[in-house]
Design brief:
With 126 residues, the protein is an all-alpha fold. It is built from 3 helices and no strands. The chain starts with 23 loop residues before the first helix and ends in a 30-residue tail after the last helix.
Length: 126
């Protein structure tokens, strides 16, 4: 009797990498943002040269190039780091630039409770 072991996808800890270390949701985000960038830009440029339909081809090439380059950059950022590292990295950078709040305590140094004198232990001690 031989037993076959099934791979259960619902027991994975993180999304599997499908292209250059990027998961499907990361690739979807990269593709969506690159379409928002390249489609209007290439259509405008193709309209200036008088060949509007060539803009769609230019957008396709731009999207593919952006996906490959962005996936390579993400692969370098994520190398040997825990899951979600780049998300935390991005939030910290946006916080440093003043564009977003940071949910983590990032202060280093001596902590103080803010009291200037001892607290009363009971109402009679006041």
């Amino acid at each position: 009797m031989t037993q076959q072991q099934e791979v259960l996808a619902d027991r994975l800890n993180a999304e599997p990498a499908i292209f250059k270390g990027c998961s499907s949701s990361e690739l979807g985000t990269i593709v969506g943002l690159s379409i928002l960038l390249w489609l209007p830009l290439s259509l405008l440029l193709a309209w200036v040269f008088g060949a509007v339909t060539m803009g769609f081809g230019g957008a396709g090439v731009g999207v593919i190039a952006t996906v490959v380059v962005s996936a390579t950059v993400f692969q370098r950022i994520k190398r040997d780091r825990p899951d979600g590292y780049y998300q935390q990295f991005l939030r910290i950078r946006l916080h440093q630039w003043g564009l977003m709040g940071c949910p983590w305590v990032r202060r280093s140094g001596v902590w103080d409770i803010g009291r200037t004198r001892d607290a009363a232990l009971s109402l009679r001690d006041r």
